Automatic annotation (TrEMBL):
UniProt-listed PROSITE patterns: HD
Taxon lineage: Bacteria, Pseudomonadati, Pseudomonadota, Alphaproteobacteria, Acetobacterales
Domain (HD) ranges: 70-205
Record's protein name: Deoxyguanosinetriphosphate triphosphohydrolase-like protein
Species per Swiss-Prot/TrEMBL record: Falsiroseomonas selenitidurans
Family: Belongs to the dGTPase family. Type 2 subfamily.
Statement: the UniProt record of this protein carries the keyword Phosphoprotein: no
SMART domains for the chain: HDc
Keywords of the record: Hydrolase
InterPro entries, per the entry: dGTPase, dGTPase-like, dNTPase_2, HD/PDEase_dom, HD_domain, PHydrolase_assoc_dom
Pfam families documented for this protein: HD, HD_assoc
Coiled coil regions, renumbered to chain: none
Amino acid sequence: MDQQRLPDGLAPWAVRAAQSRGRLHAEPGGGARSPFQRDRDRIIHATAFRRLQYKTQVFVYHEGDHFRTRLTHSLEVAQIARSIARELALDEDLAEALALAHDLGHPPFGHGGEEALDVMMRPYGGFDHNAQSLKAVTRLEARYAGFDGLNLTWETLEGLAKHNGPLRRPAPYIAEYDNLHPLDLHTHASAEAQVAALADDIAYNNHDLDDGIRAGLFTLEEAVALPLVREAHAEALRANPGLPRDRATGEVVRRVINAMVNDTVAESRRRIAALAPDSAAAIRAHDRPVVAFSDGMMEANNELRAFLFQRMYRHWRVNRTTQKCKRALQLLFTLLHGEPRQLPPWWQARAGEPGSPAAAHSVCDYLAGMTDRFALEEHRRLTDPSIPG
């Protein structure tokens, strides 16, 4: 179908900045910038966003300059999200803000770091990177005189909290924040948030495919066993006879991304046409996402994910590094939780008594904000007597 647009250029079911539910703390208007553009700008200028440069997804920062970091991944997710939002006549600025903020709560060392903190925090409610992202933008960022956090709009906070769907059993911090500033956790998020979530999947799997080949964990020829990759490879060869081996991976990956984006747009339009929503509220109230892969693409994406899980995330080289990093982070937690006077002053003031729940949460927030590099340096400072504190 032709995309339905209103005079403002957006679909009837798009979120509109002029109808935003606003911010927890009232602020003057932003002049020429929309509320969602201001959110995006605040996220980009946040300390947590800058730290993403040295937070990795699979490879620790010192393993090479060409592998993705959380920062480059977030930028790539934002690019894909804007492309899909534009095709669906949604608010691109909201989709971009959510894409840029979605990884702010990730700790150092990728999923290994998250697993390590979750183990240490189990007596205190566990650790969830989505909840930590919300915590970063509502409490931990300390940049403004009048409030903690970034004071983002309700729509951006809603999308951060539940971009993967309704939260029946929210993580403790999300539940705590929802009591202060209700985010309608029982409903789906906006179409813009759904776009950001799917853009994350598209970017993550394809860029790990690229990085895995670059790192020598598997070859392009092995990945071509997957139908989706095989089709992209055949298209690349048809378009470029005699394609040099060193350029083949890039040609394949961009074609897989393009296929996933086109499929998302087509399937989302089909679902939206069947629902015939008249507002963003209708999208939120629907019983399933409207932004999604087709069944065929979902199967192909799951095959790619399973391949990466076996050949990359469980590769012995990756696993060895992951385990070393997990142990380092768990030791840091143990040392600082048992003696929080080793924390920097701001974190020490929040920690309270050694071994207490307050100390656990303060230490967890401190560690979650670290880059890979800083975490390894802090480990050396706390375990090597020859290094000054």
